[in-house]
Amino acid sequence: MTTANPTAGPAPASPPASAPPQAVAHAPLRGTALLLGTLSLSLATFMNVLDSSIANVSIPAIAGNLGVSPGQGTWVITSFGVANAISVPLTGWLTQRFGAVRLFTMSVLLFVLTSWLCGFASSLEALVFFRVLQGLVAGPMIPLSQTLLLASYPRALAGTALALWGVTTLVAPVVGPLLGGWITDNISWPWIFYINVPVGLLAALLTWGIYRDRETPIRKLPIDTVGLSLLVLWVGALQLMLDKGKELDWFASNEIILLAVVAVVAFAVFLVWELTDKHPVVDLRLFARRNFAFGALALSVAYALFFGNVVLLPLWLQQWMGYTATSAGMALAPVGVFAILLTPLVGKKVGQWDPRRMATGAFIVFSAVLWMRSHFTVQTDFIHILIPTLLQGAAMAFFFIPLTTLTLAGIAPDRIPAAAGLSNFVRITAGAMGTSIATTLWDSRAAMHHSHLTEGLVQGQGVFAQTLNQLTASGLSQAQALAQLNRLIDQQAFTRAANDIFLGSAVLFLLLIGLIWLTRRPGPVAGASAADAGGAH
């Protein structure tokens, strides 16, 4: 996401159309104002990051309540991610058009409103629509929280400010699954959205009260309307194709073919337009830089693998392992323990150690974690599910900051916000698409395994007949006994399908290491750009 560079101060993400007004140098905040300002910005960030993880364990409950399949329920996650990714590149233009304080406060208030509407949704279509709106208004929140926070502290304490800010981005993924699971099991799923209302209102009230006299300069800038429209068109068409392909039998459907054609044509026109427009909505020329191209590619593909598996695991636990939303949340929560402990060390050492080695270590650990998960069976206990999740936190700490440092290395300070915005747009979009691909492959592989498991079963013979007789003898009707057998076969099939995806993801993480080593090691000053990695969480 578009973030501030602590060494350069807030910088515009779009080329200036006119001479910029002189920024007023505000003195750092002190005492109670500094404390409350840090609290308000952290609350907003926490709420935003929490919302991207709190729904993961609630998908089965949401899908069941709205009368759709869990696969369709994942649209609640992907719709938010895609909309959020699309709004990120606009943050620089919106900030200069309306001011950082005004834009941040309005984003928080609109986030509160859309969260409230999400809770009231009575159909999947309504919920997805409100999640799209929520993702759109959430775009500026995280980068602007960094910008305002850095302006609140003396320059010498920029690292401390970002460390305080970073804690909220790391704690939220721990609290999200636990809180989401508990709310879903003990109250009802709409409350995972309603809890944003008091938190967001408090954050907006405190922010406006403290920062309204510290507004950033405002000036009118041109907006690339054509580029933005093409961006929305191709990303939206591609995501819709991925989300609906499974239920419409992919390219046997005219609708899927149409979406594919729209996505390809719109993307091609988007590339030509953005490379020739004077004020592009995203600066694609950044991909001409070796580090940015390979760094952003490695970061995005790895995040797609990571996020797809993060969504898949609780679905498997709840649908086929008998876990409640709360227990699934407990199985996911430890991911933040090592992340919280190790991230300060990574942030401190990324300028001294080779970030390529650090990212390589992260990918090896991710691969090991997924390899361990590929051995899960229907008898795997809670502790053995917990251990890989705990180790994954160490990989997360060495994942975002080193890769973002490599991606942004060598880029001029005035282009850092645009570069960070573009890399985060690609990453978030990849994460949403990774979710769709993982769940689609899961269903597809499960159908294949179900076929293999049943092809040797002959009604009235062997183990099949013995098991059926035992079930009918226990009081079940013939139809109930057959349904129970089918459920057991499905449990095995979906477990084996999940194993396939875990193992395939493990192999891909190892292959991605090659991309890391196609980048050049940053110079000694590049460690400063690690601050920009904060938004990656």
The CA-CA distance between the termini, in Å, is 10 Å
Uncertain segments are 1-21, 525-537
What string, H for helix and E for strand, traces the elements in order? HHHHHHHHHHHHHHHHHHHHHH
Instruction: Write down the domain tally.
Output: 3
* SSE-based structural type: mainly alpha
Rg calc: 24 Å
Which superfamily, in CATH terms, is the homologous superfamily of the largest domain? MFS general substrate transporter like domains
By CATH, the topology of the largest domain is: Growth Hormone, Chain: A
Shape: globular
The name of the CATH architecture of the largest domain is Up-down Bundle
Tally of helical segments:
22
List the SSEs and their pairings.
Layout: H1 31-53, H2 59-66, H3 70-73, H4 75-87, H5 91-98, H6 100-120, H7 124-138, H8 141-152, H9 158-186, H10 191-194, H11 196-211, H12 225-244, H13 254-276, H14 290-320, H15 325-332, H16 335-349, H17 355-373, H18 382-397, H19 400-408, H20 416-454, H21 462-473, H22 478-516
Give a summary of the structure in a few sentences:
This protein has 537 residues and is an all-alpha fold. It is built from 22 helices and no strands.
